[in-house]
Amino acid sequence: MRTVLGRPDFRLLFGALLASMAAESILLLALAIWVKDLTGSDGLAGATIFAIIAPMMLAPLVGWVVDRYPRRPFFVAANLATAALLTPLFAVSRPGDIWIIYAVAGLYGLSYLTLSAALAGLIRQLVPVELLADANGVLQTVRQGLRLAGPLAGAALYAAVGGWLLTGLAMTGFVTAAAVVALLRAPEDTPADGGSRWTAELGAGLRHLVGQPALRRALLGYGLGSLVMGFTESLIFAYVDQGLRRDAAFVGVLVTVQGLGGLVGGLFSAALVRRAGEVGALAVGVTLFGPAALALAYPALWLGFAALLLAGLSLPLITVGLNTLIQRRTPAGLLGRVVAAAEALVSGPQAVSIGAGALLVGVLDFRLLFVLVGVVTTAAGVFLWRGRRLSAPPAPSVPRIPLQRRPAPAAGSEAEPQVARPAR
């Protein structure tokens, strides 16, 4: 991590993302708590996350747009647009206004997809290939580390003064990120001219994902896990309310504990990628989510803390493994479409599972649903682990030793055989 943070251009980008990630960490959970507070419904609170993920169906269009513009100015504009779309939240004051929260959540989901696609290309542009895992690991360490204070601070601020202050702080974070990235001076990649038909360009990202065996395996396994992982967005409210008998704001405490696990996972994610490969790191992350969900089937505070630590540990391993795999296996001009398509393929099943979870939590025992999540995610992790050799870590390179010139053989003597130069 020291190596990648030693690069001035990446440090500047890191500072910008620190501001935007802090804004995100205090806002996302607060939106769900806001809905829970206005309606008293666990299902409606979980549906807030569904609203954020639903725009993933527009991923091919978003990726196509991102790939048509230079990364840095597009990233700046997208951050400013994200700050602007949060302004309607200032009008929310009663239960009838929850549609505003859902509308903003949907627009924010679209913005998140856009920023993710642009960021992947920006990192690829700034960082050498051999440091991509370290760069992704640093960002995930900070993102998960912010869960230690961000959600808890967001919940506390919401309880004290309401949602308007959270909205203002989040807007400030995105504006700050835009201002800092605007100072970045990096060579810009020339966007593709788009010589082929636009319909073919929209599907180029999906075709690339399907055509690469490692990417195909990664998305199949993670997509399987995502079919049930989204249940937890609603289940966690039922766990706190029905299981622990605590107020909805206590979810912020649990997410903070999850952030501690995420901080540890972020610190070790790059090392795991180098040791087990990208698919191997993804497999470990998905598998760890299984026992965490199974532990939450028994409502006990100490066990809940242990489960959330384990779940937090799994998330950066998943993200760093998948992001690094995509960045390494994708041409720069196609990266926006591939990242957006991957987000859609993973978030599509997750959106379905969030919606299903919001419905099922009102009909079935939340403990039974946690058991289902644990079993399916463990099976998905085993499927991924069996394909880990598709992205095996590269063997250490052997330094080239220059061959010394030998004097020409004397006349009449037998020439020595040529020594082949070792392949790199």
Structure description:
- InterPro entries: MFS, MFS_dom, MFS_trans_sf.
- It is found in: Cell membrane.
- This is Major Facilitator Superfamily protein.
- Keywords: Cell membrane, Membrane, Transmembrane, Transmembrane helix.
- The protein contains 17 helices and no strands.
- It has two domains: 185 residues, Growth Hormone, Chain: A (Up-down Bundle); 189 residues, MFS general substrate transporter like domains (Growth Hormone, Chain: A).
- Helix 4 packs antiparallel against helix 16, helix 7 crosses helix 14 and helix 14 crosses helix 17.
- It is mainly alpha-helical.
The CATH architecture designation of the largest domain is Up-down Bundle
Number of domains: 2
- The CATH topology of the largest domain comes to Growth Hormone, Chain: A
The major pleated sheet works out as:
none
Q: Mean of the pLDDT scores?
A: 80
Portion in helices: over 70%
Q: Specify the structural class.
A: mainly alpha
Let me know the CATH homologous superfamily of the largest domain.
MFS general substrate transporter like domains
Number of strand segments: 0
Helix/strand order: HHHHHHHHHHHHHHHHH
- Classify the oligomer: single chain
Ranges with pLDDT <50 over ≥5 residues? 394-424
Distance between the termini: 26 Å
- Gross morphology is globular
